[in-house]
Amino acid sequence: MTGSSFLNLDNLVFIKNEVLLKESKRNVSRIMNYDREILRVLVEAGSEGLSVQKISRHVHYACNSFFNVIDFDELHRYVAQFLLRNSKNPESLIEKTDRGVYHLNMKNTQTQQLMLEFKETPTEEVQEASTKDLSLGLFDD
Q: I need a surface site. Which of 2, 39, 41, 98 has the fewest CB within 10 A?
């Protein structure tokens, strides 16, 4: 039974690697969602920009759910690092205006494309239901 046991060391390592791979894929997906949400918030903020705290709050509200609970402090650290990393150069996608306040760099061509991309995304529009009643009458002949 030593050579043919179902849960041998190789199988355990394989299972552990599969679990880690799935977890890392979820983390990458979550991080990409955070990045997109940060940029969406900055597009909506316009030229005035927002503080890191407010950006973090908006991202937290957008990404947090009952089944996917996100630690706000961890998210806030990520948002602050993302903003610092993407605002280092004058040509960067994001500009720092005041202490802790960031907005999109409108001089950057990528920013202009990003603005178009977010504005082209359809928002939820409420469609009016037709007033004509198409139901069948219960006692009609």
A: 2
